[in-house]
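== Sequence and structure of one protein ==
=== Format: two labelled lines per protein ===
==== Data for this protein ====
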Amino acid sequence: MDATDVVIAGAGPTGLMLACELRILGLEVTILDALPARTGESRAGGMHARTMEILDQRGMLDGMLAQGRPLQVGHFAGIPLDFSDFPTRYPFTLVIPQSLIETELENRAKELGATVAWDSPVLGFRQDGSEVEVEVGGAQGIRRLRAAYLVGCDGGRSTVRRLAGIAFAGTDATMTGMLADVELAEPPAQPFFSHRRGAGDFSVVQLQPGWYRLLVQRHDRVLGRGTELSFADFRANFREIAGEDFGMHSPRWVSHYGDAARQAGRYRAGRVFLAGDAAHIHYPAGGQGLNLGVQDAVNLGWKLAAVLRADAPGSLLDTYQAERHPVAARVLHNTRAQTALGRSGPHTDALRDIMSELITSDEIRHRLGLMITALDIRYATGCDHPLAGRRIPDADLVTAAGPARVHELLRPARPLLLRLAGTEPLDTDWNRHVEVVTARSHASRWTIPGVGDIPTPATVLIRPDGYTAWATDHPEADGLAELLRDWTDAVAAQTY
């Protein structure tokens, strides 16, 4: 029986990102996917700022930036949201098909040594206190894999979730969205727009030169799960709502979706975890789904590695659900709200008019936009510094080795102790667990999304996923030695 550290079910963006995280930290990873090969379907079409920051932290963003197209707006229920003044290096939506994201992530995962096995559906598993045994099917016959952990990244109809007996409660679909990736004989002048008409709304997004995604939402019908949607059906529905079809032809992908919203009651069952769509599904309003899954993976990956490498106690893994379940619940909440704002009729029209006026306020625009982009996430910590629990800004620094950005210092995926007050590192033995860098920040103040400007801290302890575990403005860094001693002794998971 073959053995590995972690088995990942699902070779989509979530599973691939998790594999990259684990391989960077030296763990053995096998990815299983039930499909015979990658479909090449474009699927999700965008990436938000926080996901771009995370990929930049691992040196994996440049290839995607080169293939995507920046769009400095997002939307809330089709009402435009300007992202251009958000405090990030990436104040835009990157329009890029999921198929290209998957190719980049798969190439990186394989470079790092991950194994991707197609035609390998998970048929079952059993677990005890020390391992999971996974039963795998496919054309090559039934085989078994032993691993310390199994992570289900296998989509909204997750086999792993079902086998683990984890409830997936929520609300059923009340409407239908349809999309097609096509070429247009008569393309519109705008590369992105959305309009409401009659019983629904329609949108046009230019994905790449000559290639467009057309969407139509209908609030007067619900297509059942598994219903086939032909290109002719899509074109007829689009024309009915939009009044024209822009000469659409040569479809690459046609699909439909609803506004069902469900979330796993728990993200962990012993040695089995859920991430991405296996843990939560929702209406794709604002393009949050792929981003949410990738961020799940990065939150879970370093924690699995820390426990498997005996750098942290097993209780650290409980923080995965504690941190990520509320984030997904918020996404389900805001996508339900966006569905309601998309309905037809004079009452919704009046509400949209008011919302459109409110969004012109910077305070409202920032609040909604930072939520959609996930730049405002704050995890609970035992530290009261305004930066604690928030993502670390990608500040420009000067180190002994020369200029560097914070994201570049996070490339090894290890905890980072950043000392910015010009003092030498403390004389204690924590370097086995923490990267220590003494540096000077170019800026005397950092801008924190949803908070504003704060003085550049004197010392910051940064988690591998780029969130701040602890910070202080005092050059003496009172309490740091004790904090690091606890971390080194692997007895205080909350410091992670």
